[in-house]
Design goal:
hydrolase; Inosine/uridine_hydrolase_dom; binds beta-D-ribofuranose; Ribo_hydro-like; about 300 residues; binds calcium ion; Nucleoside hydrolase; alpha/beta; two-stranded antiparallel ribbon; eight-stranded mixed beta sheet; 10 strands; glycosidase
Length: about 300
């Protein structure tokens, strides 16, 4: 099983992703960040996920509650104020680790070569860890990031939520040189969940099935289009056949634009000249994609 650390802001779709990862991957730790809702809930929900799946041995850490520069803009209309719809849960017995989430990231990646990082929320913890320990840029083997979009956004016309919450952090991570696989909205919105999926989960039943059905039902009833983005993203590492097309390109994070702050700008036609082969220049091959850049962008999902 692939060894991973998950940085997340649960969040309904984060909970689906955590359930999937805990079942199919070797999860070495979960770090919570403020995003969909505040850290007081995201870290609690992460701890709850470990109990729900019978894996309270997985350590859970709290990272940053606030983006590097902005105030936190939450998505509580999508996820509910506690992050898991309108479900009230008890305080988990599982305790939060004392170490700060960013320090856990630093310690883990400085000491290990074979663990990769999954990010399902704003990139604040990862960026802060890189600023504190710049060697991390060479130590993190790969990041699978649910964030950004190769098409349009969901938080603004241009920006996807996780990137818009903390564009400065995203810029640090995308410019770090760490290999990134991006499962952005252009991919995850190819997945659509509705009441039939809720019923299917109810039919499976059990503690996990019932919980999943409850939170998905909240999503379906409170949104005109529900996709469990974070679960789609991690599916890439559970079974890489799930992604049927991906393209490597240069992706830069816009931090200044009046309309485009938080946008992930994909350089499909090599305007930035980052393709060393220079085989596919924009003059020559309008319809061909270049083959280099900092990010492998997932394009198509096997539904
Ligand atoms: C992303 O934003 C959050 O609301 C979800 O949890 C997901 O990580 C989708 O834009
Ligand atoms: Ca998330």
């Amino acid at each position: 099983k692939r060894k991973v650390i998950i940085d997340c802001d649960p969040g309904i779709d984060d909970m689906f992703a955590l359930i999937l990862c805990i079942r199919h991957l070797d999860v070495r730790g979960i770090v919570a960040v403020g995003g969909n809702t505040g850290l007081e809930y995201t870290q609690r929900n992460a701890r709850f996920a470990t109990e729900l799946t019978g894996r309270p041995d997985i350590p859970v850490y709290a990272g940053y509650d606030m983006p590097m520069l902005n105030q936190l803009v939450r998505a509580t209309e999508v996820h509910g104020s506690g992050g898991i719809g309108d479900i009230e849960i008890r305080e988990p017995e599982k305790k939060l680790e004392k170490e700060h989430g960013a320090d856990f990231l630093i310690r883990t990646f400085m000491e290990n070569d074979d663990i990769s990082l999954i990010t399902l929320g704003p990139l604040t913890n990862v960026a802060q860890a890189i600023l504190k320990e710049p060697e991390l840029k060479k130590r993190i083997p790969e990041i699978l990031c649910m964030g950004g979009s190769a098409t349009s956004g969901n938080a603004t016309p241009a920006a996807e939520f996780n990137i818009l919450v903390d564009p400065e952090a995203a810029k640090i991570v995308f410019e770090s040189g760490i290999p990134i696989k991006m499962a952005g909205l252009n991919l995850t919105r190819q997945n659509h969940m509705d009441m039939a999926d809720v019923e299917q989960l109810r039919a499976i039943g059990g503690t996990v099935g019932d919980f999943a059905a409850d939170i998905l039902e909240f999503s379906v009833k409170n949104s005109d289009f529900t996709s469990i983005c974070d679960a789609c993203a991690v599916a890439w590492w559970v079974d890489d056949q799930v992604i049927t097309k991906s393209i490597r390109t240069q992706v830069d994070v816009e931090t200044k634009g009046e309309f485009t702050r938080g946008m992930t700008v994909c350089d499909w036609r090599d305007f930035m000249g980052t393709d060393p082969e220079q085989e596919i220049s924009r003059e020559k091959c309008w319809n061909k994609y270049k083959t280099s850049g900092n990010v492998e962008v997932a394009m198509e999902f096997d539904q």
